[in-house]
Automatic annotation (TrEMBL):
<protein>
    <recommendedName>
        <fullName>Tetratricopeptide repeat protein</fullName>
    </recommendedName>
</protein>
<dbReference type="InterPro" id="IPR011990">
    <property type="entry name" value="TPR-like_helical_dom_sf"/>
</dbReference>
<dbReference type="InterPro" id="IPR019734">
    <property type="entry name" value="TPR_rpt"/>
</dbReference>
Length: 442
């Protein structure tokens, strides 16, 4: 294939190894100059994790390079989606292209697909591509690329013994003086498996930073490992350095938000999420960020803002429906996003005093929709009862609490909630008995 462009293998270290030079045969052909320029821009977008440019060039490069290299192009784009946290798009692309069914995928494509599936948290898909990769890759020895990729599925499957065995094999490979890839990977896996002491891993990080301290991928990797070692402030400093140069670096900002969440600093974490929302190019990206933002608030016990963020997240799903009335929209969300709808209700219960009547009625409508699809949904029944009690619908709340107690007679929150209902009905003795019962079950 004289005019082919050599596609890159993207590594587990989140930094692509791009070709130093494109195919000489292709470059010699002047008619392919435009194709090579497109390919170079595509690879640059992958390296810089620029999803906007990558998506724009994706279909163009597929048309220009033809079907012979289509699988490799799709694999590279799938990995770009995964690295930019656009996980649904990644998996849809892999599945829509039916790549699992294609028999003659190159080892480069299989490596990228293995990593893309791994980052998208699809263990079965990662293992499918990994098994094909093992057959397609050279059997003589573990090459640099294969050594890195073979470790991924074992990380996914939490097979510590096999991961350590692969690390041992990797340590015996000959690495170039200027090649930091081995040490980068060893540092990543050290944090997960404690193969080396944390101090050894820390020294390795410092060595890497001295040589490649301006490389965005290196900064990310080192920050990830510092986070795992609970060296949060050092990790934040590295990410500050990265974001001062590349303010739109998605994973750098998201990682910093997660570290702030670890430190229970909801303010800075939420601020980073708000910046990510400005960059979010698709509804799935916005949902991902809002989901993280809701967890950040909840982690810091700011349940009201967690509830508000979860509500905003659900509005993205509601925008897709053709329904116009609130009950119909709730029924549609109960069908399409039951987990998210329930999470919103559970957060609402933790901040009922801050919700207005309209919000309380909406929560009750949502829970009724969930119960219509799954009548034995006890968490939804509990949220409904709490909301009804807050709305002053004590008789309805009491009925639902008794229904819940018939299935969960030893669940203390039911008794605590019923005690509040009894108080609303003026039944102080009944309320006292339920509180004593709840206390005995705690």
């Amino acid at each position: 294939m004289a005019a082919a462009v050599s596609l890159p293998l993207l590594l587990a270290a989140f930094e692509p190894l791009l070709p130093n030079r494109l195919s000489q045969a292709a470059a010699a052909n002047k008619s392919d100059k435009a194709k090579l320029e497109t390919a170079a821009l595509f690879f640059k977008a992958i390296k810089e994790e620029d999803l906007f440019i990558g998506e724009r060039l994706f279909n163009k490069i597929r048309q220009e390079l033809g079907s012979e290299q289509d699988s490799e192009i799709v694999a590279a784009q799938a990995l770009l989606y995964a690295r930019c946290q656009s996980l649904p798009q990644c998996l849809n692309l892999i599945r829509d292209s039916r790549l699992t069914e294609k028999p003659n995928l190159t080892s480069e494509a299989l490596a990228n697909l293995t990593l893309a599936a791994y980052l998208s948290k699809d263990k079965n898909l990662a293992m499918q591509f990994f098994q094909k990769l093992k057959k397609a890759a050279p059997k003589k020895s573990l090459t640099e690329h294969l050594a890195i990729l073979t470790t991924i599925p074992y990380t996914v499957l939490d097979n510590e013994a096999e991961a350590k065995n692969l690390l041992k094999k990797m340590s015996n490979l000959s690495w170039g003086d200027n090649d930091e890839t081995a040490r980068i990977l060893l540092t990543r896996l050290t944090a997960s498996y404690q193969t080396l002491s944390s101090e050894t891993a820390y020294r390795t990080i410092q060595e890497i930073l001295k040589k490649k301290g301006s490389d965005s991928a290196i900064l990310i990797i080192c920050a990830e490992n510092l986070r795992k070692q609970a060296r949060y402030q050092e990790a934040i400093k590295l990410l500050d350095r990265l974001l001062s140069k590349r303010n739109n670096h998605w994973w750098g900002r998201e990682l910093r938000a997660r570290i702030y969440m670890d430190l229970y600093e909801a303010g800075p974490a939420a601020a980073d999420c708000k910046e990510l929302l400005k960059q979010a190019a698709s509804p799935s990206d916005k949902k991902h960020v809002l989901g993280l933002m809701s967890r950040i608030y909840e982690h810091s016990s700011d349940y009201f803002n967690a509830y508000k963020t979860q509500s905003e997240l659900l509005l993205i799903g509601a925008a897709k429906t053709t329904q116009t009335t609130e009950p119909a929209i709730s029924r549609e969300l109960a069908r399409s996003s039951p987990k998210l709808l329930l999470q919103k209700g559970e957060l609402a219960v933790k901040c009922l005093d801050r919700l207005d009547k309209k919000e309380l009625v909406q929560i009750a409508t949502d829970m009724e929709a969930l119960l219509a699809y799954k009548p034995n949904n006890l968490p939804a029944l509990y949220v409904l009862a709490c909301t009804q009690r807050k709305l002053g619908l004590n008789s309805q709340a009491l009925k639902n609490i008794n229904l819940g107690l018939s299935s969960q007679p030893d669940y203390a929150p039911w008794y605590e909630e019923r005690a509040k209902v009894w108080q609303g009905l003026g039944q102080k003795d009944q309320a006292r008995r339920d509180l004593e019962k709840a206390k005995s079950l705690r």
